Amino acid sequence: MRKLLLILLCLPMIGFGQDDRLIFSSGDTIYGKVIEVGVNDITYQHKDETTNNVTKKRELAKVIYSSGRIETFQGLGILESKIAIEENERLYLKQKDENKKIRIQKREDRIIYFRELNESTKNYFVIRTGISMADIRDGDDWPTFKEDNSLGLSVALDAIFSITNRIDLDASIRYSQKNIKAKTWMFDSGGTAWNSYANLNKINFIDISPKLKYRIINRMHISFGPYIGYALNGKRELINDGKKHPRDGFVYTTNEPTLTVPYDSSVDFNYIDFYSHKIKRFDYGFNIGIDYILTKKILVSSEYSFGLSNLYSIPNIPPNSVLAELDNSQKTSVFYLTIGYILN
């Protein structure tokens, strides 16, 4: 059909010949001589023959006479439509074939990319930084403490070692902030608690955590494992009813003698006296997380740290006080969202 289209386009420029050319709507071409053009029919003879043949005008596209004159008929529209359909089909098949080649190439590129990604992340290090949201899990959910959520900084270094195609060992060390509440109780001679002040202690921990990572898909892992943490230092913030004295600290005036409580904004982990509380340095629990490798060098991760260690105690609680009946335990609860850079 393409050749026929070229013929139809070029024939008007071809020089005169000795034969008439009859081009049918089917695309067939006959060389011969037109004998008669009737109202509905055309009579013609094949080249070198004397037999008359009759065809309907609607079956002819055009006749190019030996004189060079061109006469078109009803079948020209049909022929042009066939040529257009065939050309569109040819272009469609060509485009379909090209799209198939592109899909195959993209699939091969992805296979190569993930193969290289898996090979490059067999054993590697990751530096991660982001935010942490620290909370506290209270034994009796002390009603005076409702401001214990806080955002902090989290920095971690992970060493990843491949065990199988889907399982890795992640040995990490992390710096993060966790919260512990401290309420200083004072008792009268009868063991009744009176006047207290409270602090939210924001403490900086170093956690060491070995975790197992399982590859769900090529770039996504889930992880689970224990951790142990050690408190480096921390700051205290007053969060309820104390009033700060300009020089000395917090002053309380009650039916007992006036008492001035010295205040220091840093956390003292060895602080035990008649005010009765102690903050412990060691924390332990477990981590669960998920991470996704965005590129060969960048990953994002979220992790939840569930503490099991009670980090707060009140050693000197009078046995006949209401406080002795309460669960004063505090355990950490921290959510992390970080972005990491892969070193390999």
- pLDDT under 50 segments (min length 5)? 12-16, 241-261
Q: How many strands, which pairing sense, and closed or not: the largest β-sheet? A: 8 strands, antiparallel, barrel
The tally of helices reads: 2
CATH class of the largest domain: Mainly Beta
Q: Report the strand count.
A: 18
Strand order of the largest sheet: 7-8-9-10-11-15-16-18
Q: What is the H-and-E element order? A: HEEEEEEHEEEEEEEEEEEE
Q: Determine the N-to-C terminus distance.
A: 60 Å
Overall pLDDT level: 78
Based on the structure given, which CATH architecture of the largest domain is correct? Beta Barrel
Percent range of helical residues: 10-25%
Shape: rod-shaped
Class by helix and strand content?
Answer: alpha+beta
| CATH fold description of the largest domain | Porin
For the record, the count of structural domains works out to 2
Radius of gyration using CA atoms only: 45 Å
Beta-strand content: over 45%
State the gist of this model.
This protein is an alpha+beta fold.
How would you portray this structure in words?
Helices cover 16% and strands 51% of the residues. It has helices at residues 2-10, 75-120, and strands at residues 20-24, 29-37, 41-46, 53-56, 60-64, 70-72, 123-138, 150-162, 167-187, 193-217, 220-238, 249-252, 259-262, 278-279, 282-293, 298-307, 312-313, 330-343. By secondary structure, it is α+β, with helices and mostly antiparallel strands. The protein has 2 domains: 2-81, Roll (SH3 type barrels), CATH 2.30.30; 122-343, Porin. Residues 12-16 and 241-261 have low confidence and may be disordered. The chain has 2 helices and 18 strands. The strands form 4 sheets. Strands 7-8-9-10-11-15-16-18 form an 8-stranded antiparallel beta barrel. The protein has a 6-stranded antiparallel beta sheet with strand order 4-3-2-1-5-6.
